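Work Package 4 report. The design task specified in the project plan requires that, given a folded chain encoded as structure tokens, an amino acid be chosen for each position. We show below one input record used in the internal validation round.
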């Protein structure tokens, strides 16, 4: 079991009030858990800016499969990035719209560049990269 260290934090009263309000809205079980989550979020954000750190994430895209040549383009694109793409899942939302979740692993900058290119392919209606961590340093 990991050692837990207690430390005191001094904050302006107003800032603490705002924080407590946020904690209540987010249903966080305690200030400690909320602060741990904030620290982890900050560390993950930092990992994505480091050059040699391996990070993981997901790219979610929504597109109309009737758009001309789009399926071929998306397939081609994913084959060309098989060093980053670990897996993908496709679901058919309705008669036209598809949702795809692509799991990625690699260097933050490579993933961000790849996600930007993928999301900007003509016919992709919406796309979003979610950045997270391998969890090793958290
Ligand atoms: Ni589909």
């Amino acid at each position: 079991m990991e050692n837990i260290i207690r430390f005191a934090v001094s904050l302006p009263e107003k800032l603490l009030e705002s924080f407590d309000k946020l904690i209540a809205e987010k249903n966080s079980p305690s200030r400690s858990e909320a602060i741990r989550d904030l620290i982890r979020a900050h560390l993950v954000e930092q990992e994505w800016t480091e050059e040699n750190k391996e990070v993981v994430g997901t790219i979610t895209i929504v597109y109309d499969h009737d758009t001309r040549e789009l399926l071929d383009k998306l397939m081609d694109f994913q084959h060309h990035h098989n060093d980053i793409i670990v897996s993908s899942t496709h679901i058919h939302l309705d008669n036209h719209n598809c949702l795809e979740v692509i799991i990625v692993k690699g260097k933050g900058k490579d993933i961000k560049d790849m996600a930007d290119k993928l999301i900007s392919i003509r016919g992709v209606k919406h796309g979003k990269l979610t950045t997270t961590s391998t969890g090793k340093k958290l």
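The chain has two domains: 13-47, 54-132. Validation will be extended to a larger panel in the next phase.
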